[in-house]
């Protein structure tokens, strides 16, 4: 394995993690995390705009809002995710799905930060 293999392997892992999330939540997570990282969201323009204003619109279910809230908090300050945040997810998802969502958020955040690091002037 070489460093040139890393993007292919991370894309495969990212797709696998997204496939374990219900409905469009994988896309919502990817979009919001990318926005918070200051990167282009890997979704179509319409969904990108909806996610940008997720707190003020009626375009998302309560379950999707819970996922977006936790995703945002995990990216900004993972220590700020509370028991109440997890309980809100658990109102909509069974325990294995809650864990899959949290793992997906963590992976998307980590991959995004890894990509940002690779693009930094120190790594060019």
List the helices and strands and how they pair.
Blueprint lengths: L5 H14 L5 H13 L7 H8 L9 H16 L5 H8 L4 H24 L6
Helix pairs in contact: 1-6, 2-3, 2-4, 2-6, 4-5, 4-6
Low-confidence stretches: none
Q: Would you tell me which CATH topology applies?
A: AhpD-like
Biggest sheet descriptor: none
What is the CATH-assigned architecture? Answer: Up-down Bundle
**Helix count?**
6
Looking at this structure, what is the CATH superfamily?
A: AhpD-like
Q: Order of SSEs, N→C?
A: HHHHHH
- Give me the Rg, rounded: 15 Å
Instruction: Provide the structure class.
Output: mainly alpha
Estimate the helix proportion, in percent: 55-70%
Strand content: under 5%
Euclidean distance between termini CA atoms: 21 Å
Q: How would the global form be characterised?
A: globular
Short description:
This protein has 124 residues and is mainly alpha-helical. It has helices spanning 6-19, 25-37, 45-52, 62-77, 83-90, 95-118.
Descriptive report:
The chain has helices spanning about 5-20, 25-35, 45-50, 60-75, 85-90, 95-120. The protein has a single domain (about 5-124), classed as AhpD-like (Up-down Bundle), CATH 1.20.1290.10. The chain contains 6 helices and no strands. With about 120 residues, the chain is mainly alpha-helical.
């Amino acid at each position: 394995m070489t460093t040139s293999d890393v993007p292919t392997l991370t894309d495969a892992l990212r797709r696998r993690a997204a496939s374990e999330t219900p409905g469009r939540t994988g896309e919502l997570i990817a979009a919001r995390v990318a926005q918070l990282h200051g990167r282009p969201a890997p979704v179509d323009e319409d969904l990108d705009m909806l996610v940008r204003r997720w707190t003020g619109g009626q375009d998302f279910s309560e379950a999707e809002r819970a996922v977006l809230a936790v995703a945002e908090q995990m990216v900004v300050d993972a220590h700020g995710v509370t028991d109440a945040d997890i309980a809100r997810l658990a109102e909509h998802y069974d325990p294995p799905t809650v864990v899959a969502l949290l793992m997906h958020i963590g992976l998307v955040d980590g991959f995004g930060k890894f990509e940002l690091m690779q693009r930094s002037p120190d790594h060019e």
